[in-house]
Amino acid sequence: MDMEMSRIGDGETGLEGANCNGPDLLPEYCRYRDEGCEFAESCLKCPYPQCLYDEPRGKQRWLKERRNREICQLFRGGDWGVKELSSLFGLSQRTVQRALKSTLSISLRQGREGDREEEVI
To answer: Are 36 and 48 in contact (CB under 8 A)?
Structure first.
């Protein structure tokens, strides 16, 4: 073990000029710069369980879901109608209606599942 470590320290491994893109390179010899993205300052501090860029259209899907939740919250407050929300978000009235339908159906399903869990207990 000591002999292996001394060889690594002596530079006999040939990793000094190694390319990080090689498939056989161990992670401890690769210089990875954790620059993060627009949602988190670094990948290690990201609040999401999976990177949004790992899924196809992940960022677009996440932004759309967030927009739809906000539309639903404003609509539930009672101060905003479909016409007002469409002009506020720059969407057609039909798109706002679809967003409300999908978001409300998801919240209703989650509410029913919560009721089932309470009944079982």
So the answer is: no
